[in-house]
Automatic annotation (TrEMBL):
PANTHER family documented for this protein: SENSOR PROTEIN CREC, SENSOR PROTEIN RSTB
Source organism of the structure: Streptomyces cavernicola
Enzyme class: transferase
Any GO molecular function: protein histidine kinase activity
Family annotation (SMART domains): HATPase_c (SM00387), PAS (SM00091)
Gene3D superfamilies reported in the protein's UniProt record: 1.10.287.130, Histidine kinase-like ATPase, C-terminal domain (3.30.565.10), PAS domain (3.30.450.20)
Name of the protein: histidine kinase
Membrane topology: Multi-pass membrane protein
Keyword Iron: no
SUPFAM superfamilies from the UniProt entry: ATPase domain of HSP90 chaperone/DNA topoisomerase II/histidine kinase, PYP-like sensor domain (PAS domain), Sensory domain-like, Sporulation response regulatory protein Spo0B
Length: 537
């Protein structure tokens, strides 16, 4: 049965670190012991050479070598034994120039030729070696023996038992293993502490579980239809899923960049960076209305989620438009009922001529209003919008009229966008004018060349200069939120729609008081054709 690694990360990391620590200890011990043997050999040979040099430097040894004959009781043997015992050498052999021993640790060997080659020493060279002789393996040092005139008269060979060197090596091994064991114990303790920390950080999951979680996370992040953006503690983009790239119009190259650099300045950056706090914060990125939520993480970073609310906002505005239409129909129904009651009374009083005149005046008034709008506005969408707004304004007690200089040809490139802009501004103007002394709203639309200018004036309290730029920021509103969501988006979309066409939107003070919103769209109309050019006065 094959024994594999344990599944838990804690156990795997501990086993691997213990194996590494043990391997390092064994390797370090081996690397220390390998050169130690060579070092001890070198020390032994140098010691033997030094003893040989000291012996050769004795003048009495040279005199006795030349004046006496080799014998176990001779002066050369006595001096050599004295030095041998004093230095602890295994042997000291003094030989003449023929290689005959004059001293030896075994007196029986005196007078015999040496067993190893003495030619190098007799030639004047010093020799260090480990060799095999009559006394076994030893570390040797050989030096020439010179007379008073400098001539070589013999040589000195000193040997140190090799077993003593090996004993020193063997005796040092237990100490080395003790140090290695201590280092291994320290490494095991460090491995245990590191493994415990890894266990806490990985929540005691197996490596296979972590790998599966990462794969599932990648699939989930790139598969969900919510944008997910993660930031590190320094505010750099750490993660950006596919939906977040689409909603924020960013590419994969934004990962690793600071958020301010990747997105640029604006409310979206402030919301994602945490400089604007709250839940379900609305922000506009391009033409999209986004809902953002931000959650800090333990490492100082944060994770933000983004939901696309553009469609929901569009449906909410369509609901507002539908409600406006219902209000207009209700106003018309109420007005129509009053007219019918009046007509019924005239008929019951048999005032038939007055009844005919009343019907004519009523129909003519409605027709005049519609004709006045369609005569000045040739675009059917805008004309229908303002006709409906006139009825709503009348129901709310506000006078809504077109300025005398209103002229708009039927050449709009984006009529739906202009309807959105005009509808938002007129609704805001009606809300502001209600309750004023002389409630009125005036709309001016003028097209010239390819440019369109829209002005909406009201008789409300106006906008103080300090807030004239603030009202175009997301989330700013003086009204209660509607049933379908939050306010603070309408004027932002007005400016964004204007800027998309290269135009602008700003607010100022209307003549006579109130606010005047002006939107300029320099590229809102198509080029006039030849027929239009001939019809132009």
């Amino acid at each position: 049965m094959r024994i594999g690694l344990p599944r838990r990360v804690f156990a795997q990391v501990l086993v691997m670190q213990l194996a590494i620590a043990a391997g390092v200890a064994v390797l370090a011990t081996g690397l220390f012991l390998a050169p130690l043997s060579d070092q001890l050999d070198d020390q032994a040979m140098r010691r033997a050479l030094a003893i040989a040099q000291t012996t050769a430097a004795q003048p009495q040894v040279v005199e006795d070598l030349t004046a006496t004959r080799p014998s176990p009781g001779g002066p050369v043997q006595a001096e050599a034994e004295r030095i041998r015992k004093a230095t602890g050498a295994e042997y000291i052999v003094i030989m003449d120039e023929r290689g005959v021993r004059w001293s030896h640790a075994n007196p029986a060997e005196i007078g015999k030729v040496v067993s190893t080659d003495p030619s190098q020493a007799l030639a004047g060279r010093e020799v260090m070696e480990i060799d095999e002789g009559t006394l076994g393996r030893s570390a040797r040092g050989k030096v020439p023996l010179r007379g008073s005139d400098g001539d070589i008269v013999g040589a000195v060979s000193v040997g140190i038992a090799y077993d003593s060197v090996r004993d020193r090596l063997i005796s040092s091994i237990p100490g080395l293993f003790a140090y290695a064991g201590g280092a291994l114990a320290v490494g095991a303790l460090a491995a245990y502490l590191i493994s415990r920390r890894v266990q806490k950080q990985t929540r005691d999951l197996a490596f296979s579980d972590i790998s599966a979680l990462l794969a599932e996370r990648e699939a989930m992040l790139h598969g969900i239809r919510e944008g997910v953006l993660a930031l590190d503690r320094n505010g750099r983009v750490r993660l950006l899923n596919d939906e977040a790239q689409r909603l924020l119009t960013l590419g994969p190259e934004a990962i690793g960049k600071p958020l301010d650099e990747a997105l640029g300045e604006g409310r979206t950056t402030d919301v994602l960076a945490g400089r604007v706090t709250g839940t379900d914060l609305l922000t506009v990125r391009g033409q999209r209305v986004l809902v953002a939520n931000r959650m800090p993480t333990d490492d100082g970073g944060a994770v933000a989620t983004l939901r696309d609310r553009t469609e929901l906002e569009r449906l909410g505005r369509e609901l507002d438009s539908t409600r406006g239409l219902i209000d207009a129909l209700r106003a018309k129904d109420h007005e129509h009922a009053n007219h019918l009651h009046t007509l019924l009374g005239l008929l019951e009083l048999e005032m038939y001529d007055d009844a005919v005149d009343f019907v004519g005046e009523t129909v003519g008034a409605h027709r005049a209003t519609a004709e006045q709008v369609t005569e000045k506005l040739h675009d059917p969408l805008l004309a229908a919008l303002l006709v409906g707004k006139v009825a709503v304004a009348a129901e709310r007690g506000v006078s809504l009229r077109l300025s005398d200089d209103t002229r708009l040809p039927d050449r709009l490139i984006d009529p739906q966008g202009l309807v959105t802009i005009a509808g938002n501004l007129v609704d805001n103007a009606l809300d502001a004018a209600v309750g004023s002394q002389d409630p009125r709203v005036e709309v001016a639309l003028h097209g010239e060349g390819r440019a369109v200018e829209l002005r909406v004036r009201d008789s409300g309290p106006g906008v103080v200069p300090e807030q004239r730029e603030l009202i175009f920021t997301e989330g700013w509103s003086t009204k209660e939120p509607p049933a379908h969501g939050k306010r603070g988006i309408g004027l932002v979309l007005v400016r964004r729609l204007a800027e998309r066409q290269g135009g602008s939107a700003h607010v100022g003070e209307a003549p006579g008081g109130g606010a005047e919103f002006t939107v300029v769209l320099p590229e809102a109309l198509t080029e006039p054709d030849l027929a239009h050019a001939e019809e132009r006065p």
